[in-house]
Every structure is written in C-alpha cells, then in structure tokens.
Design a protein that fits this description.
The protein is α/β, with parallel strands linked by helices. The protein contains nine helices and eight strands.
C-alpha cells in the first residue's frame, strides 16, 4: 500500500482563489516562478492523480491561518472522513490556531479526537508561531495526550520572509518540552535547511516526510539524512498540488530508499 502523507485540497467554492493567493504570495516574496501548482487542489482531481500514480491513500493537511477558519476547516475534515465514497482514499487531518486560548485549543483538539480525526497540521510561518513558544508546546503536548499526530511545516516557506519560525535548530530545542513521537516534520525536517536537519534532527524521536524535497536536495545528503534518522521514520509525501504525486516516490525507488 502506498500512502501519500502530505497533500492539500480546498473546498470547491474557494479552490481557485486559494491557489491564486498562494501563488501570488510566493511570486511577491520570493520572485520564484518555478513554484506553481500542478493541479487545481480539488478533491476529485486529487483522487484522479492517485489513480494515475498508484497512490492508495492520501492524507489531507489543512491549515487554519486565521482564528475564524478553525471550526470550518475541521468541519470540512469531518465531511471528507465521513463520506463513504471517498473515505477509503482520503484521510483529512484538522487544524487549530495558536492565537486561540488554551481552553479553546483543548476543546477543539478534544472535538477533533472524539470525531475520529487522526491529527492536525500546524504551519509556524502562516500562523506566526515559533515552534518553541508556549503556545506550540501546549498544542503538541495536548495532541500527544489525545493520541493525535502533529504535522509541522518546517524550514523556510517561499511565501514568507525571515525569520524562520520552525528551523531544525529551533525544533531541536523545543524537543526538550515534548515527546516528539507524534510529530512529523514536513519537508524533510526543514525546507532548504537540510544541512541543519542532519546536524540537529537526525536520530531524534520525530518523523520526517519528503514533501517538496527531492526536486532540490542533493542526493547524497538525502540518503545521509535517511541513514542517520533511520528509514522507518521517513514518510513519503508529495505536497500535492505543489508537486506531482509520483515525483518523490519514484526518486526514493530509484535510490533504493522507501520510507
């Protein structure tokens, strides 16, 4: 079974606008025209991509960038997970926002867990949250208590200027305050900061995924990180719609590495 652990879709009525805003932000901040979506980030398009590329299950990772989005995003996740036509193919995580009170965070995480959602996505850049802040540490510890996985955007983000809120070094410091076994550090532990991943995160308790990594990382460094971190803590992820779903998997197969 092949699972793509890192994908994104949007509700039909906002998908076009959401993608346009994200692409405009990347172009404005990074002037990098090479990072554009390869699909329209809709549910049916993702399933078509899965069928074309031999993907059995995709994990959908929404992010609440505003307090007002939390409830609707988690309701959207519940709708995906309860739809018998697609829930054998798509598994949606939920999200919370660090600007919420601890009481509201706990309530929403409990609602997520009680309704069978398996985890949450946090994006320290778009949520303006340092990973070693008390808010982030509280969220991760509460999620651990409830048996929820936490997927983190780690490293740089082309749509946001410095500072980096979840660098490999900062994440390593934060690991003094939570277990880490329920954490997945997306983008191979730190987008465009992979030397620091090798230095600070290899061999720790966290998982890492391959989302939006293989198009940039040096092959030798890719293999060295996996060797030191151990293959069973590396998850295949594409970051669809930003990357084709077969890219990372084919790369890993060619290098005889499968997470």
């Amino acid at each position: 079974m092949i699972i793509d652990f890192h994908t994104h879709i949007f509700p039909e009525k906002i998908a076009d606008r959401a993608i346009a805003v994200l692409e405009e932000q990347i172009a404005r901040v990074s002037a990098d025209e090479s990072y554009r979506t390869v699909s329209d980030a809709r549910r049916d398009t993702l399933i078509e991509s899965m069928d074309a590329n031999g993907i059995d299950i995709s994990v959908v990772l929404p992010v609440a960038t505003k307090l007002s989005q939390v409830r609707s995003i988690n309701d959207f996740a519940l709708k995906i997970n309860s739809d018998e036509k697609i829930n054998s193919r798509l598994i949606s995580f939920g999200s919370v926002h660090p600007g919420m009170s601890e009481r509201d965070i706990d309530f929403e995480l409990e609602r997520i867990a009680q309704n069978g959602i398996k985890g949450i996505k946090m994006h320290p850049e778009s949520q303006e949250m340092y990973i070693n802040s008390k808010e982030a540490i509280h969220i991760i510890n509460k999620a651990y208590e409830l048996g929820l996985t936490v997927v983190l955007h780690t490293g740089r983000d082309l749509g946001f200027p410095p500072p980096v809120h979840c660098s490999p070094e900062r994440l390593r410091c934060a690991l003094d305050y939570f277990d880490g076994s329920n954490v997945v550090a997306a983008h191979f532990g730190g987008f465009r900061m992979w030397d620091d991943v090798l230095r600070y995160l290899s061999g720790t308790n966290i998982y890492i995924d391959t989302a939006l990594t293989v198009r940039e990382i040096d092959g030798g460094l890719f293999e060295e990180i996996i060797k030191r971190h151990t293959p069973d803590k590396v998850l295949y992820g594409s970051d669809s719609p930003w990357e084709k779903q077969n890219t990372a998997y084919e790369y890993m197969t060619k290098t005889n590495i499968e997470g």
